[in-house]
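Protocol step 4 of 6: structure prediction from sequence.
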Amino acid sequence: ELTNTGSAADTFGVTVPGLPAGWTAAVYADEDCDGAADSDAPITTAGPLGPGENVCLVAVVTPPADAQPGS
């Protein structure tokens, strides 16, 4: 869940930093906050969100095909 804690409307970049080499991630909107993506289209920004507004997001992380369990 992403919340605008500022005092003005804002748009936020959405990324998943720090993944190991070869891993990928995509972020999706979860408009009903049920933990499931509501669209097949990944997003890169969220907003604009007014002060105190929030949006739920789902990140889908994909390891490389040759990743070993526990990596």
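Step 5 (inspection) to follow. The beta strands are 2-3, 10-13, 24-29, 45-49, 54-55, 57-62.
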